[in-house]
Amino acid sequence: MAPPLPGPLAHLAPLLSHYGYWAVGAVILVEDFGVPAPGETILLAAGVYAGAGQLNIAAVAGIAFAAAVIGDNIGYLIGHTGGRAFVHRWGRYVFVTPERFRAGEEFFTRHGAKIVVVARFVEGLRQVNGIIAGTSGMPWRRFLVFNALGAALWVGLWASLAYVAGTHIDAVYDEIRRYQLYALVALAALVTAFVIRHVLRRRRRSRT
């Protein structure tokens, strides 16, 4: 039986339970050519499942790596063949707005090829990385090398951490239960402090 997933990973449990490796590959693939999907989250969830013995970690890592590279290369093809006009025309349907795309292009231009590696770890850039590389005219082979390196590092890091957590899932839940009261108290204190600060600021503004 699959273990319950902690926190924000929990909503992916039905998807992983029903489709397993297919879910990992499909979600990461579509995220990497611009479609908003929880690619990183499903990788973490699959790693936890693997650590608990429900999936094979080598298969999870291999599928995630292949999906990440293929997805980004689809994005590169879209950017290279369709250009900015295509992205501006259709991108808004997958939340790639002209403003978001322009910000990504500026960041990409400043940092060059190394951003292809770094972008894998940055939410927002991860989804448009390949498209921007295509529209900016980066040579495909150069993009492929840096993209594969970024995908290997990304998969290796998150799959390994999640796998370790999955092998100690009972201990993880014990720690969560032990400290959840303290965490809730701390969260309540932060929210209270924020509300008080907001009220005091409004009072000061109303006096001036």
Topology:
Blueprint: H1 13-19, H2 21-31, H3 39-51, H4 57-90, H5 98-111, H6 114-118, H7 125-135, H8 140-167, H9 169-207
Helix pairs in contact: 1-2, 2-3, 2-4, 3-4, 3-8, 4-7, 4-8, 5-7
Description:
The protein has 208 residues and is mostly helical. The chain has 9 helices and no strands. Helix 1 packs across helix 2, helix 2 packs antiparallel against helix 3 and helix 3 crosses helix 8. The mean pLDDT is 78.
Taken in chain order, the helices and strands follow as HHHHHHHHH
For the secondary structure, the number of strands is: 0
Mean pLDDT: 78
Discrete helix count: 9
Question: Low-confidence segments, ≥5 residues, pLDDT <50?
Answer: none
**In what range is the share of β-strand residues?**
under 5%
End-to-end distance: 63 Å
> Biggest sheet, open or closed, and with what strands and sense?
none
The structure class reads mainly alpha
The coarse overall form would be: flat
In percent, how helical is the residue content? over 70%
Q: What radius of gyration results from the CA coordinates? A: 21 Å
Task: Name the descriptors.
mainly alpha, about 210 residues
